Amino acid sequence: MALLNSKTKAVLLGPLSKNNPVIVQVLGICSALAVTSKLEPSLVMAIAVVLVTAFANVIISLLRNSIPNRIRIIVQLVVVASLVTIVSEVLKAFAYDVNKQLSVFVGLIVTNCILMGRLEAFALGNGPWPSFLDGIGNGLGYGWILVVVGFFRELLGSGTLMDIQVIPESFYEVGYENNGLMMLAPMAILLVACIIWVHRAQNKELQEESN
Amino acid sequence: MKALRNYLDKIKPNFEEGGKLHWLHSTYDAFETFLFVPNITSRSGVHIHDARDSKRTMIIVVIALIPALLVGMYNVGLQHYMAIGQQASIWDMFLFGLLAMLPQLVVSYVVGLGIEFAIAQARKEEVAEGFLVSGILIPMILPVDTPLWMIAVATAFSVIFAKEVFGGTGYNVFNVALITRAFLFFSYPSKMSGDQVWVRTSDTFGVGGGNVVDSYSGATPLGQLATSEAANFSEFTFQGITGQSLSISDMFFGFIPGSMGEVSTFAIILGAILLIATGVGSWKTMLSVFLGGAVAIVITNLFAQNALMDMPMHYHFLLGGFAFGAVFMATDPVTSSRTEKGKWIYGFFIGLLAVAIRVFNPGYPEGMMLAILFMNAFAPLIDFYVVDANIKRRLKRVATAKTANE
């Protein structure tokens, strides 16, 4: 049995571009703005969301036939909350500094719109394997936006990448300065807007009809 | 004139459909209509013809800005020679200011117009005039020591993200010059506030070299007051950059440290007279900004807890960007309210907020910029309710007229 046929491939790869949760569906913006001031927390957040989405999708998909319809949101929340707690504890144990930077936003993965959206829209109606791929795909689709935004914000805002100085000292000596606005949330939303701009320009079918 | 016209006519075919320079058509068109009144009139529909096209409006604003620009240049030189403790003639001071300001003007125009031309060209549209005013406003509201590359970055940012993405001149929600300043203010706070940036102490292109005198301190009057320990205003005196005390007339004529164009209330009043006389700027907006400011000042004076809250009204109006913002920024026809009643509301809140920000948040001594940007966002909402109220009032009138007739 091939692990990926054309349908599961679309499930995995679609969210990376044409069906991206952040730049096409515009979900999960709040955390994308809040945690991306540096590259490292963006990366950690991306990984955390990939893992939580993937496993929450699998678990809900396995339970999908036994969950009573009326209380399904509660069941989903319980599953997601347990996974988030695990991620949060692991971060506290092994990456305490990053965990402090991410602060409440690890906990707030519980309410991340992407997560609930995938559980509702996909996991409740599909088997565990496609659900797993869907979770990975959406997590990565969210993650790469975070990493790109985090890359530019850290590079232009602090002159560093992963806390390593990349803009040479000689630049500062001739008058270059870090852009403080990059460290503030408004610039993050502008960067997301720029990504959307480039993306729409390349994918004509996503452009809305102008009237 | 004739020769210029002939030359333009001669090169025109190159830029028309099929010409080898057709891709530069917008650029040609911009220069032709800049130099000569276009002789093309609309051929269909009903049009009202008025001599006041947008090019003329823009030019009048630029002319209105000239007094403030000249006094600003003189003041840059004056502050400089005071700081280095040298005597200099008026012309030396003026020359120094000119040399300090010219590069900033050039950078702001080259970057801004460059982007405007490129985008108009790409969209195959006419080049719009909007940047003519923004380009001169930008250096006037910045400290003299702002590095040129920062002005270039900020101008590019605001032309693209505050104007072109909304559809170009006439469609922008926020004032382009103020967005430039806000970008710089939040990006490079060390170059936009504090007491090191308002007076150029080094020489400019070799002119006016010298050592700074010992008693030098470059804080603006508002900056001094915001950081002072004085319990009320009567204990406080404004100081010039060498420690001399500043009189009201210094503040009125603009011989104080501050952003280049906005120090002289006198020159701003001259500009305001021209704007009002020609009908380009709305006197309602200007007056209501001062009214709103006055209300806020009276309230803060009544409940004064510190020297800043205690500052009398005339100082508020003379210092900082209050007058400049009221006359040249709040009246921007694109970003302000368009209904006549709306202008009163819009201006009133600008004044109110500017004083409130200035007094209650000394971290932002320039309340005017934030107040105007904030009200820019509300201008369409104000217009909506003014128009809506008018419709409702007239509907009611129709209803009463009908019942009276029956």
Could you characterize the architecture of this molecule?
The complex is a heterodimer of chains A (211) and B (406). In chain A, helix 4 (72-94) packs across helix 5 (96-102). The model of chain A has no long low-confidence stretch (mean pLDDT 86). Chain A is mostly helical and 211 residues long. Chain A has 10 helices and 2 strands. Chain A has one domain (37-203). Chain B is mainly alpha-helical. Helix content of chain B is 63%, strand content 0%. Chain B contains 17 helices and no strands. Chain B starts with a helix and ends with a helix. The A-B interface holds A 175-177, 179-182, 184, 190 and B 147, 149-150, 161, 183, 186-191.
Task: Tell me the layout of helices and strands.
The complex is a heterodimer of chains A (211) and B (406).
Chain A: H1 6-13, H2 29-34, H3 39-63, H4 72-94, H5 96-102, H6 104-107, H7 113-121, H8 128-158, E1 160-161, E2 164-165, H9 169-173, H10 185-202
Antiparallel strand pairs in A: 1-2
Chain B: H1 2-15, H2 25-35, H3 54-83, H4 90-123, H5 131-140, H6 148-163, H7 176-187, H8 189-192, H9 221-227, H10 248-253, H11 265-278, H12 283-302, H13 307-310, H14 313-318, H15 322-329, H16 340-360, H17 367-405
What is the helix content of chain A? 55-70%
Beta percentage of chain B is under 5%
First-residue to last-residue Cα separation of chain A:
49 Å
> What is the N-to-C order of secondary-structure elements of chain B (H for helix, E for strand)?
HHHHHHHHHHHHHHHHH
H-E string of chain A: HHHHHHHHEEHH
Number of domains of chain A: 1
